[in-house]
Structure formats: C-alpha cells, structure tokens
Design goal:
Number of helices: 4
CATH superfamily of the largest domain: Cupredoxins -  blue copper proteins
Radius of gyration: 25 Å
Structural class: alpha+beta
Order of helices and strands: HHEEEEEEEEEEHH
CATH class of the largest domain: Mainly Beta
Largest sheet: 5 strands, mixed
Distance between the termini: 31 Å
Shape: elongated
Number of domains: 2
Strand content: 15-25%
Strand order of the largest sheet: 3-2-1-5-8
C-alpha cells in the first residue's frame, strides 16, 4: 500500500489521507466539544435553563469553515478525476471484455489473452465492455476502477512505473463465482513486450506489427 505504481497513485493516496485526516480532526473536535458541554452545562450546575440568542459571528464561523474544508476536498477529488480521465495521445489501445467469470484482453491485431501484458512506462488505454452482467475492472495498485456494463463501453488508462505484475479483480458482485475473476497485469520492458507480442501473434495466427512503433 502507498507505493506508486501508476501516474495518479500518489495523488489519490495523498487525497485519501488528507480527507481521512480532516475527518478525524473534525470528529475529535466534535467529541471534545460534546464532552465539554455535557460537563459544563450539566443540570446540577445549571438547574435553570437560559434562553440563548443567536450569535452571528459564531454562526458565520461554523458555516464558512466547513464550506472551505468541503470545497478543498471537492477540488482535490476533481483534480484526481481529471488525472484519471484525460487519456494521453498515442496510448496503446487494448479491449477488455468481462463475462461470468473471466476477463479477456484483445490487442490491436486481434490477439486475445486472459492476462493483461503491457509495456512499462507507456500509456495504455483500456476499452471496457461486458457480455452479460455488470462487472468492474479494478487494479488496486493503480488506484483505478471502471465498471464494465452491457451495451456500453467505458475507458480507463494507466502507465506502469516499473517492471512488475499487479492483481486485477472484479469489484462488482456478478454472481456465484465472482471471486474467481482474478487475473494479472504484467508490465514488461519494451523489448520483452514486443517479443511476447510477436510470439502470441504467431501462435494465434495473427498478423504481427510492432505495437510500440505505432503508438509512440
């Protein structure tokens, strides 16, 4: 956790921790105020209730401060959404198809795999669809998740920051074997990726063309 594996992982982690920190401080402040008022204004010390008139500065304070905090958190969330949504030019296009209970990934020349092989340090655009019920393509290390919905295509993108493999899951309950919908993203350097792509193309009788030279 909290290891950068995509261009937006660090920002999303920082946003998450900021919101949790602010929420914790607000909760702590409310608890302290509640305990103070329970003790300070308990019935034994204040047997006769007092009518308190409005306090304009106090009301402005407790309106403005939450508004500023909320708008700050909204802005951070919006910036994170923009980072995830704006797909770079020249990203490698791959189609992801969900069905009960499997992911398949189709490359530009028609090669189909049940594991997602990608070139490291290169933007990858995933077009997501479902053949049956709702699914959700979730890559925890990248902090991204996008629904796979019948009769609709959704897009996501990422760029791996190192050569490694990462878990892929379905984050939408899709039936009895929902938990079986696990696979991997395998990030390779450009030479290894092209070697794998060429071998997979020949094995599946697809026309091989270097994929990176077309997208860079």
């Amino acid at each position: 956790m909290f290891q950068s594996a995509s261009p937006f992982a660090d920002y999303i982690d920082a946003t998450f921790l900021t919101i949790v920190g602010i929420s914790s401080l607000v909760l702590l402040g409310l608890l302290i105020a509640m305990v103070y008022f329970v003790i300070r204004y308990r019935r034994s010390k204040n047997p006769h209730p007092t009518n308190i008139e409005g306090n304009i500065p106090l009301e402005i304070t407790w309106t403005v401060i939450p508004l500023v905090l909320f708008m700050g958190m909204f802005w951070m969330g919006w910036e994170g959404y923009r980072k995830i949504s704006i797909i770079p030019e020249g990203a490698v296009p791959i189609k992801a198809t969900a069905r009960m209970w499997q992911w398949t990934f189709e490359y530009p020349n028609g090669v189909v795999m049940d594991t997602l092989y990608v070139p490291a340090y290169t933007p990858v655009k995933i077009t997501i669809r479902s053949l049956d019920v709702n699914h959700s393509l979730y890559i925890p290390a990248f902090r991204i998740k996008k629904d796979a919905i019948p009769n609709k295509e959704n897009l996501m993108w990422f760029k791996t920051s190192k050569i490694a493999s990462y878990d892929v899951a379905c984050a939408e309950y899709c039936g009895l074997r929902h938990s079986y919908m696990y696979t991997k993203v395998v990030s390779q350097d450009s030479t290894d990726f092209e070697s794998w792509y060429k071998a997979a193309s020949l094995k599946q009788s697809k026309v091989y063309q270097p994929i990176l030279s077309k997208t860079q």
